[in-house]
Amino acid sequence: MIGTVLIVLLILALLGVFPRWSHSRNWGYAPSGGIGMVLLIIVVLVLLGRL
Fold first, then answer.
1. N or C: which end of the chain has fewer CB within 10 A?
2. Cα separation of 38 and 20, whole Å?
3. Is the pLDDT higher at 5 or at 28?
4. Which residue has the higher pLDDT, 11 or 26?
5. What is the pTM of this model?
6. If DSSP codes are grouped into helix, strand and coil, which group holds residue 4?
């Protein structure tokens, strides 16, 4: 249950830092890459049953 909630929150955060919107255009790709990496780690942990 907590894994699903974390995945949904990280997907929303990933969409929020995507440099398509004007509030994050000058941030570049670094925030979306970092949040994407965290999302990947959470997904792997959920699939392995560790979270």
1. N
2. 20
3. 5
4. 11
5. 0.60
6. helix
